[in-house]
Specification:
Length: about 400
């Protein structure tokens, strides 16, 4: 069973940032001497500058590249600064690019507000003071660099998430197929052992019959394990339904089935109306496991008591299954409790394969909820769960 390859495929990645691309500033001005002056100041501050002599030219270069800041003359022939800004804002890569307007004449308050409405983040009054321009440019470059890093990080996370999902799906399909394919040879082992017992009964001595009994018991146990593994895999493979489910009514049915298949004297206390929202099939598996455990681990109690109810908790309403059985040390086992194959009772104390709580955990997680347990040795157990 090769599962390492799957994990190896989820690559560890470093941030391949192209910092040069964070340095670009666009200067838009119809006057060549202004463009030259601003470019000189900005280049001294380490910026890469693109010049555009009109609003139309600015729109054309904005299509091709992403800028950390756009410095825009308000008054230009043709498209003025405000109109150019409005159109630049509509371009997909420029929706948040900071635009700093430069105006040679005093800009009235209403003009300023108009500029802010078009996406201006700042104003500079000409003649521009070089230190002020350099300081503003540096601040915008830094903001831009951080934004680019955040975008890149988000992209990488998305990619890794995708790879993890694919690896997980593959692993899931693999365990399902493996469990499924084990069934046929197991059926053959059980079947041939049975034939041997029936057809050679007279010729077998006690020890040989005992061997056949052990084969039959082991095959039955492995069959149950395969069933459990298939149910576990099925929890994530099946499509989820979202319906109103009365957990109380469902639990009553399950309790009745258990009482019928092996009658016991148990005090059941199941709240009649426990409305929940979720997948009825999965919620039945969940309750079957929790009530089944409560049933199993109260086997040695003279007066066994099993409850199902709900109560207000920090995260909203939580449901609980409580019993007065043998319990376990919840403080010690809390982080192992819901992992497959983990058991805290011996086979002699109670038979089982340790898949039940892993299945329950998956069902709760698929519903967007949380599950936790309170218990102590010999003091019963309470399993709490929410359903998102
Ligand atoms: N209600 C309970 N009371 C005491 N112990 C429990 C209870 N439910 C679960 N456990 C402990 O958690 C272990 C894992 O449970 P589960 O996954 O359902 O496996 P299984 O029931 O097959 O042993 C059990 O083996 C048992 O030690
Ligand atoms: Mg169980």
């Amino acid at each position: 069973m090769h599962t390492r390859g799957l994990c190896d495929r989820v690559e560890s990645t470093t941030l391949p940032m192209n910092l040069e691309s964070c340095n670009n500033i666009l200067v838009v001005d119809d006057l060549a001497e202004n463009r030259r002056l601003y470019s000189l100041i900005l280049r001294e501050a380490g910026c890469a500058v693109t010049e555009a002599a009109s609003g139309d030219a600015a729109l054309a270069v904005c299509e091709a590249r992403d800028y950390a800041m756009i410095m825009m003359d308000v008054h230009m022939p043709g498209l003025d600064g405000f109109e150019t800004a409005r159109r630049i804002r509509r371009q997909p890569g420029c929706t948040v690019t900071p635009i700093v307007f430069v105006s040679a004449v005093y800009t009235s308050d209403s003009d300023r507000y108009k500029g802010y409405g078009e996406g201006a983040v700042d104003y500079l009054l000409a003649p521009v003071v070089p230190d002020v321009l350099r300081a503003k440019a540096k601040a915008f470059l830094e903001i831009h660099r951080r934004r680019k890093e955040a975008e890149e990080l988000a992209r990488l996370l998305e990619q890794q998430n995708h790879q993890l999902r694919a690896a997980y799906d593959e692993l899931e399909a693999f365990s399902y197929a493996a469990a499924h394919d084990l069934r046929a040879p197991l059926r053959a082992i059980g079947g041939f052992a049975e034939i041997l017992r029936e057809e050679s009964a007279a010729a077998l001595d006690e020890e040989q019959r005992d061997c056949l009994d052990r084969i039959a018991a082991a095959t039955a146990r492995m069959n149950r394990l395969i069933d459990s593994l298939l149910i576990l895999a099925g929890v994530t493979r099946s499509a989820m339904r979202h319906e109103a489910v009365n957990l109380g009514a469902l639990a009553q049915e399950i309790a009745q089935e258990m009482q019928q298949s092996s009658p016991r004297n148990i005090d059941w206390d199941i709240a009649p109306d426990l409305s929940a929202q979720g997948d009825p099939g999965l919620l039945r598996i969940l309750l079957t496991n929790l009530l089944g455990n409560a049933w199993k681990y109260t086997a040695r109690r003279e007066r066994a008591r099993i409850e199902l109810g709900q109560a207000a908790k920090d995260e909203g309403t939580a449901f609980y299954v409580r019993d007065n059985g043998s319990g376990f040390d919840a403080a010690q086992f809390a982080d192992q409790l819901f992992k497959p194959f983990n058991r805290f009772h011996s086979h002699e104390e109670a038979p089982g394969n340790g898949i039940g709580l892993a299945t329950v955990h998956r069902i709760v997680t698929r519903h967007g909820g949380r599950i936790w347990a309170e218990s102590a040795k010999d003091a019963g157990a309470t399993f709490w769960f929410t359903l998102g």
